[in-house]
Amino acid sequence: MFWYHNMTKHSYNSVRTNPNRLSWEDQPSTYKNYPNSYKKKKLNLENEEEDFLYHIAGLTEKKTYPSGEYYLRINPSAGALYPNELYFQARGVAGIDDGIYHYEVSSSSITLLHGITEDLGLEPYLGYKTAMKGYLFLVSAIYYRSAWKYKERAFRYCLLDAGHLLGSVEMAGLLKPHAVQIVYGMEREKLNRMFGFEEREWFLSGLCMAVPIQGQSVEGIEFELPYVDGSGTFEAFPLIEEAYESSTLLQNCHKSLKAPKFTYKKENLRETIFQRRSQRGFAEGAMTKGQFNYLMDVIQQPVLSDCDEEVNLYVVLNRVIDMPLGLQKNGRYVKYGDFAKKAGYLSLEQYSLSTSGALAFFLTSKGENYQALYQKAGIIGHRLYIASGYLGLGCSGIGAYYDDEVNDFVENDEMVLYALAVGK
Ligand SMILES: Cc1cc2nc3c(=O)[nH]c(=O)nc-3n(C[C@H](O)[C@H](O)[C@H](O)COP(=O)(O)O)c2cc1C
């Protein structure tokens, strides 16, 4: 088990002896905006490519509280803290000048950070020797945004949220339609330096939605962007920095070559993506066996990546019509019985989610590549959100659970990565 994971477990006692007090005056910003001296382009939803970009991470709902206004996005995030930033290279994309961009969420714009040429680009840093026509995305984390609230455990949330953002690109890609390939084997240190992140932000993954341009070889472009603050406040968490450093080097990676298959109807999917929200509690409604099978099929589809790790899917069936109550592992029952209360307790007593929901999921892994396996859990979680919404069901991610007690329940000693609940 990765040492960081072991050190950041929740238990019944730890959450009581270590209550999380938030210092509101230190609340970090959730937006990174480059200065206006950079060329920015507001996303125009009439343009197909810009509409696609909007469906990855655009703002979709405004919440007003006494403390101010907050916006929710296409992609979910633990505590709505949105620790991730999205960058991309566009080459040969209709209506978007070739270049390297930052996705500016606050204004629904893209900011041109640097130009590229026919023979210079980001491709080699992601392992490609030829120029790639389409998009190369890069996902980073500004970890303090999440650590402000979740302290040392925040690296887990940064990775899950990054997985959701990758999943968001995957789902928006289906609108075009375009397949995606996740890239973990990228030159992170070099890229972190070139983008001027100064240890406060780091790249976690890449995503290729592009095809090679035969015969057009390309070399790595060199630039040095200035540091741009993306959190306002900052406090260093040495444990998180060490966890990032020591999980950056990949080992014994297996490449997955099988592409996932989804059967969504484009217009319904577009609406589902746009309307996705986390359900705050379930009314104990049941789902049908057909809906259950559909969800299981979607989340068991392969994830195309250069470092695929096995993630085990455990699901507690609380309310599926014509199916026995019990616990399944990867689609097969491992025990029968009513575990609804147990699932709610394990999810840090969030009974309105994992007990009242029709299903309660726990994802585990014993893989070696922590960043890759954790982001995969986020991608699977995102597929579950979208598939649930598509069927008219609600879904919520759950990052807080009693780690060791989940292990006892599912009877394994793997790292518990994520819990989710689905229901009505
Ligand atoms: C990794 C992750 C963990 C989450 N954990 C919880 C949780 O433990 N309890 C909860 O009620 N919501 C949880 N959520 C839901 C978030 O609070 C929600 O995504 C965020 O407030 C934004 O709202 P939206 O999903 O409706 O856009 C989680 C979401 C994610 C992505």
Overview of the molecule:
α4 packs across α5 and α5 packs across α12. The mean pLDDT is 97. A seven-stranded antiparallel beta sheet has the order 1-6-5-4-8-10-9, sandwiched between helices. Strands 14-13-12-15-17-16 form a six-stranded antiparallel beta sheet, with helices on both faces. A two-stranded antiparallel ribbon has the order 2-3. The chain has 13 helices and 17 strands. By secondary structure, the chain is an alpha+beta fold. The radius of gyration is 21 Å and the shape is globular. It has two domains: 244 residues, NADH Oxidase; 147 residues, 3-Layer(aba) Sandwich (NADH Oxidase), CATH 3.40.109. Bound molecules: flavin mononucleotide. The site of flavin mononucleotide (FMN) has 18 residues, from α5 and β16.
